[in-house]
TrEMBL record:
It comes from Desulfofustis glycolicus DSM 9705. The lineage of its organism: Bacteria, Pseudomonadati, Thermodesulfobacteriota, Desulfobulbia, Desulfobulbales. InterPro entries: Pept_tRNA_hydro, Pept_tRNA_hydro_CS, Pept_tRNA_hydro_sf. Belongs to the PTH family. The record marks 13 as: Discriminates between blocked and unblocked aminoacyl-tRNA. This is Peptidyl-tRNA hydrolase. Monomer.
Length: 197
């Protein structure tokens, strides 16, 4: 596979019961991108749903691991190795409870932050050298975020209508800043995307 090909990997849990949950914001984002290119995902042997497409002038795979969140790395590593995509060309989109709802942040390396999907990917790739596009969902008890809910129940609960509208707005803003991210210009990508709050 050509070096310039990237993959945008949305993390989430498969199945209709999880579709609109906060933990599935990665799935929701790649679904948004698939709609924008009028594409349809196909189930593959890598335990993932896959769509090959172009975003702007960039060749991209959109990927949704179907292993459930905690085993995401098994699917991601098998896919990346088959297509010879280096970790630096993998953009993993996931929820972050330590950021305000709708905030966006591009990071590379670092720890998993307690996110089991990220932990699994690091384990199976053998490194943390991929790009992470974090989308805030808020932490229960912070500001006005559902103080009565424990974290595990909160991340697996559904977005409200208002929260879905906020996420849709953010997805459009992220899309506008994808070109430098896909082109490997992380400094420019951070300048454009990390200001989304």
């Amino acid at each position: 596979m050509a070096e310039e090909t990237s993959a945008i990997i949305g993390l989430g849990n498969p199945g209709p019961n999880y579709r609109l949950t906060r933990h599935n914001v990665g799935f929701l984002f790649v679904d948004f991108l698939a709609d924008r290119v009028n594409g349809a995902f196909q189930t593959t042997k890598w335990e993932a749903q896959l769509l090959r497409c172009s975003i702007g002038q960039r060749r991209v795979f959109l990927v949704k691991p179907q292993t459930f969140m905690n085993l995401s790395g098994r699917s991601v590593a098998a896919f990346a190795r088959f297509y010879s995509i280096e970790p630096a060309r993998l953009i993993v989109v996931h929820d972050d409870i330590d950021m305000a709802p709708g905030r966006v942040k591009v990071v590379t390396g670092g720890g998993s932050g307690g996110h089991n999907g990220i932990k699994s990917i690091v384990q199976h790739l053998g490194c943390g050298d991929f790009v992470r596009l974090k989308i805030g969902i808020g932490r229960p008890g912070t500001a006005t975020v559902h103080p009565e809910m424990p974290v595990d129940a909160y991340v697996l609960s559904r977005f409200s209508t208002e929260e879905l509208e906020l996420m849709a707005e953010r997805f459009g803003q992220i899309e506008a800043g994808l070109d430098p991210l896909l082109g490997g210009d992380l400094a420019q990508a951070r300048t454009m995307l990390n200001r989304i709050k």
